[in-house]
Structure formats: structure tokens, C-alpha cells
Amino acid sequence: MIEASNITCAYGSRIAVHDLSLRVSPGEMVAVIGPNGSGKTTLLRALSRTLRPISGTVRLFGDDLSDLSPMESAQRVAVVPQFEEPAFAYTVRETIEMGRHPWCGGILGPEDAAQVERALGEFGLRALENRAFTQLSGGERQRVLLARALCQQTPAMLLDEPTAHMDVGYQTAALRKVASLAREGKCVVVALHDLNLATVFATRCALLFGGRLVAEGPVEDVLASGNLDEVYGTRFTRIREPMSGRLFVLPEVFQLEQRADRPRRVHVIGGGGSAAPLLSELWQLGHQVTLGVAYEGDSDFTAAQTFGIAAVCAPSFAALEGETMERAYRLAQDADVVIVSESPYGAANLPNLDLAQRLREDGKAVYVVSRCREQWDFTDGAATQKISALLASGATEIPFGEITLALASEG
Ligand code: ADP
Ligand code: MG
Questions:
Q1: Distance CA 316, CA 346 (A)
Q2: In angstroms, what is the span from residue 75 Cα to ligand 1's centroid?
Q3: How confident is the model at residue 24, as a pLDDT?
Q4: Of all atoms in ligand 1, which is nearest to the CA of residue 38?
Q5: Which pTM was predicted?
Q6: Residue 36: nearest ligand to its CA?
Q7: What does the pLDDT read at residue 381?
């Protein structure tokens, strides 16, 4: 068990990690994420005795790290540093052999040699074994450092962006190997930049920002939280990969100059997947969007989750009524504009049109996306009547392609 309790670390008078506590049990692989300069490397250095915290304690399998000799700590924890510039041009084989030094004191026995062979094979390094470490590419170096750490046969491993310079093939192979070591009972802490690698491989996640632990827990919870967008200063879309059900995050890549000059607050009333493209476009333009009422199984609701859009939802096929409608009404209160997308209507979701009418009567601008579907009214004309009433009370019918322009000139 690695146990950091209230550690604070500083470089001179600059505090780089503030009052941070983290426990990692055998079998866990904890991903440390956070933007550049957030303290990931400093934390790992504190856990490995490279840097002594100015306050707080680190315990490694029960013992205070500062009471252990360098040899004792090297027998418990292996480190893959972010950068390593050796003073001498050791070969790949020699570098990996160093992983055995805490155990054999420099003279390798047959068991040590066997470990080195295994590590060379494990990370595909046989062809490079006589090359100088300093002459390798970044990704090759990282494989050597991982092999050295593997050889060290410690119950704990600390890895600082170990795959940063690797191509995707080696990245996944390396992390798969590390994850299997964790499953076999090691305590693993790994700083990662690629959040989706954290999703796939880590059992838990710690998000650092400004030297503080701002979120910690199951990877999905941390990635789903708004903290992520705040900390990285970018918006993320969140997509659940349908086959594995895993949550992946993608940083927004929309061009800033395409943003609306005046972001509006827009409430969308949709259903049947009709609102998803609208939500996507409005979100990307930077409008503040809400949705409701939507059905849980509907792709409109999935789109809202993808973009972190606040939504009121109801179980699939349920009749929309009562408290659900009231919640949607309250959610729409902040909106400047209401858009009714071209969804199909049946008896169950007809109250969504009453919601639009009520918001119109409150004085909100209401747009109804032109109906271009042949069949959208499954209510024997009740939906058609409600749309007509909406238009009669001042709502505007609009083709989908003109919504952006209309929002720009609205109010
Ligand atoms: P990360 O690994 O998350 O990018 P670091 O732990 O390397 O962040 O750095 C945390 C903070 O400490 C940064 O503001 C960084 O500039 C500072 N820092 C890191 N190393 C040193 C150092 N050797 N001397 C002074 N400041 C440092
Ligand atoms: Mg770092």
C-alpha cells in the first residue's frame, strides 16, 4: 500500500503540491491526470523518495518512506521517470540490468540475468540491447525504462507519462502490460496525458490542478465531471463507446471564430432524434442550451449527455405529465429562446407542445422548425392543431438551416 497523507511539496518557496492525500492499494492502477504544471511529476517524486515533502508523510507498505534506505526503497518501488539523461552512454542491456541492482548489488546472478532476458523480450528490446540508451528515440527509451522497472520486481510502480513518446501500438501494449501487473497485485500510479488511456486501463483516477487534488474516484466519474473542462480550459464532448460501454472524452475542436457573437440561452423541445443535430450545432456555436422533456432512450437525450447539456428526461414511452413537465418548465425559465424541433408526436409526448405554448404565453420567443416529414402527427390532428395555435400566438416557423441566423438577430 502506498499512503500519502497531507503531503506538501515545494521547490524553494514555490509550493507545487498542496496538502495532498492519496492511498493506492495492491491491485490498483491509479491514473494521475491534470494539465501541465499541475504537480503530477512532483507527486510521483514525493512518492518515490526523490523529493522529500516539506510536510505530511508517505508510507510504503507500512513504513515511513523517509526511514527507508535508498536500497530498501528501491526494493519496494520502481520508477519510470518522465525524462532520464544518463551521465554515461550505458547500453540498453546495462540500463535494464540496473533494475536488478537493489537486489544483487551490481553482480547479476542467474536469476537476475533471467529477469533481464524476460524484460528485454517483454518490451521488444532484443534488437536494441547493444545500442546506447542515449541514442534511442523517445519511445524506445520509454520501453527500456519500463523494462528496467519490470526487472526491479517491486510491489509498487510509479510511472510518469510512460507512454508519452510511444506510437499507439506500443502505448496500448505497454499499458496493457502495466495493467496486468496491477491485477497481479502491484500498486501502480501512472501519470497520463491521454485521458482515454486512463479510461481503458486505470482502476481509479486522481485529477490534479494547481498542485491540489480536485477530483478523485472511478475514472468515469472524474471524466464525466465538469471539473475536467474547467481544469483543462476546454470543453469536452463525452461519448459512450457502444460496444464496451466505456466513456471516452474528446476535446472540442470547433474553431473559435465560428462562435456566435452573442451566445443565447436556448431551450430545445424535441424527441425522436430530431433535436440531436440542433443541440450539437447550438452547443458548438457556444449557446447555453437546455433540453426537455426528452425520453431516456432517445438519441436527443444521448446528445445532451454528450455535450453536458442540462436536460429533463422521462422513461421511454412514459406519458409526459405532472412534475416532469413542471421541471422542464422551470429549466426553460432561463431561456431567451425556445426551439421546437421537428419530432413526431403521439399521445404520450403531446404535452411537450403545451409546454411550448405556455412558454410562448410567458412572452418567450418560440421557433418551430418547419415540418418536412411526411408523417409526424400520430394524434389524429391534435398535434397539428397545437402547432397551428402556437404559430397563431406569435411563434415563428423556420427551416432548420436558418436557426443560427435567427438567433444572431433575435432580441
Ligand atoms: P506536471 O508533471 O503536472 O506537469 P510538475 O510536478 O512537473 O507538473 O510541476 C509542478 C509545478 O512545479 C510547476 O509549476 C513547475 O513549474 C514547478 N516545478 C517543477 N519542477 C521544478 C523545479 N525543479 N524547480 C522549480 N519549480 C519546479
Ligand atoms: Mg510531469
A1: 13
A2: 27
A3: 98
A4: 3
A5: 0.83
A6: 1
A7: 94
Among the atoms of ligand 1, which is closest to the Cα of residue 39? 6
Q: Is 83 in the pocket of ligand 1 (CB under 6 A)?
A: no
DSSP-derived letter for residue 264 is -
Average pLDDT along the chain, 411 residues, taken 10 residues at a time = 98 97 98 97 95 96 94 96 88 96 91 95 95 95 97 97 94 96 98 96 97 96 92 90 90 72 92 90 92 93 92 92 94 95 93 97 95 85 95 95 85 62
Tell whether ligand 1 has an atom less than 6 A from the beta carbon of residue 39.
Answer: yes
Residue 86 confidence (pLDDT): 87
Specify the ligand 1 atom closest to the Cα of 34.
Answer: 3
Domains of the chain in sequence order: 2-245 (3.40.50.300), 256-409 (3.40.50.450)
Cα of 298 to ligand 1 centre, how many Å?
46
Which residue has a Cα nearest atom 7 of ligand 1?
Answer: 41
String of DSSP letters for 161-218: STTTTS-HHHHHHHHHHHHHHHHTT-EEEEE-S-HHHHHHH-SEEEEEETTEEEEEES
Residue nearest to atom 22 of ligand 1 (CA): 11
Query: Which residue(s) pair with 115 in the sheet?
Result: none
Whether the CB of 206 sits within 6 Å of ligand 1: no
**Per-residue DSSP letter, 372:** -
The pLDDT value recorded for residue 379 is 94
* Cis peptide bond prior to 293, omega within 30° of 0: yes
Beta strands in 296-401 (DSSP E): 310-314, 337-340, 365-369, 396-398
Cell of 253: 475542436
